Amino acid sequence: MTLGWGGIARLGLVQLALGSVVVLTTATMNRVMVVELALPAILPGLLVSLYYGTQFLRPRFGHGADRGGRRTPWIIGGVALLAAGALGAALSVGLMARHTGMGIAAAVPSFLLIGLGIGSAGTNLLALLAARVKPEHQAPAGSLVWIMMIFGLAATGITAGILLDPYSHARLVAVTFGVCTLAMCLTLLGLWGQERGQTAARDKTALPFRAVIAELWTDRRVRIFTVFVFASMLAYNLQDLILEPFAGHVFGMTVGESTQLGGMHHAGALIGMLAVLLGGTLLARWITVPLRVWVVGGCVLSGLSLVGLAYGGFHAARWPIAVNIFTLGLANGAFAVAAIGAMMGLAREGGEGAEGLRMGLFGAAQAIAFGLGAFIGTAMVDVMRLLTTLDALAYGTVFALEGGVFLIAAVLALRLTSPQATRPDGSAALMPGE
């Protein structure tokens, strides 16, 4: 049974719920630790790294759901773990104000729960989408659920910001509890009846995890795609924490101006996602944009935009930085959701009931790349600024390297051909659904 757009939108509520809870831990609690409690910025950085460090377990979570034949319990259980971890993190922040050591000790298991919850729920949500969405709808479906996640991030950020003023630790705990409760309700609503009539798992999924993952890794296309996901998502996140400092150091922008520039990047990303969504739905009857175009084109345009930033830093007085950043966001958004659609396509190739393991492997590559990207990007800038007094050269070198990684990712994507998807002339297509 395939899902219509109503069913896809309901699953998007789960993604919205995940984003709503995560933003409290990565943004709000991060700020409280650094500003209100005057703790070193490395502390929340290390705590978030614990969350990313659990993501290598995603293939296990996917395989566990494959063997059980149902994904709903894994998704609900994951959101419950995420909620428990977020609430524990909020309580630990309050404890840090009284006893720093005890608060940090309490935060560690809380952030581990956050990572485990995200891994279990996120992996099996995408696996469920991969199993139930038509191949031609996978890219726009990925776009829709990601747009809903961004809405959850924005709505929670705005609402929580209003409710948290004037700030107190009690308010933080209360707001976190409210968001977690709402997230559980949205999850239950989104999953209700989605797996009705689901058949049992295939015999192959009953094999031990090591045997199944070893067999999966012998698939050349899976190996190439896993490396592609890691490379592209690493490049995607390398610039995330250095764009605004770049605007300040090289273009002399104020905090407000650089923040607006960051908003231009997010706006471009949203429009890129909407383009993929509209291209696969409303415009599909007149023109079909192959998934190859979104994936490869997004990587190439992202790479060229980063090279443009590297060049523009040396011509700051006349370089259209806002247009450059908007274009980067546009390319990032289109590529990211198209890559999710590609993940669904290759996960589906494993056969009914085996999507979780593949999606877990791809999801682990993505999450680990995200975690490394944030660290490596900032570290590279720090090293380059020690080696040269020219900020344009320091940042430009990093941006140029990131652009190169995106172009390598584009080449990897071009190497992917699907034995199940061919064009009318008999040549191979990038993946199912093209």
Mean pLDDT: 86
CATH topology of the largest domain: Growth Hormone, Chain: A
What is the H/E order? HHHHHHHHHHHHHHHEE
Which structural class fits the helix and strand makeup? mainly alpha
Oligomer: single chain
Give the CATH H-level superfamily of the largest domain. MFS general substrate transporter like domains
- Write out the strand line-up for the largest beta sheet, numbering strands in chain order: 1-2
Please count the beta strands (DSSP E, at least 2 residues each).
2
Major sheet size, sense and barrel closure = 2 strands, antiparallel
- Total helical segments: 15
- Regions with little confidence, pLDDT below 50 for 5+ residues: 418-430
So what's the CATH class of the largest domain?
Mainly Alpha
Q: Mind explaining what this structure looks like?
A:
The structure is a single chain. With 434 residues, this protein is an all-alpha fold. It folds into two domains: 1-191, MFS general substrate transporter like domains (Growth Hormone, Chain: A), CATH 1.20.1250; 209-418, MFS general substrate transporter like domains (Growth Hormone, Chain: A, Up-down Bundle), CATH 1.20.1250.20. Helix content is 77%, strand content 2%. The protein is built from 15 helices and two strands. It has helices spanning 5-36, 42-53, 58-68, 72-98, 100-132, 138-163, 169-191, 209-217, 220-238, 243-251, 255-280, 291-312, 321-348, 355-387, 391-414, and strands at residues 418-422, 428-429. A two-stranded antiparallel ribbon has the order 1-2. Strand 1 and strand 2 form a beta hairpin. Helix 10 crosses helix 11 (255-280). The longest helix is centred in the N-terminal third of the chain and has 33 residues, at 100-132.
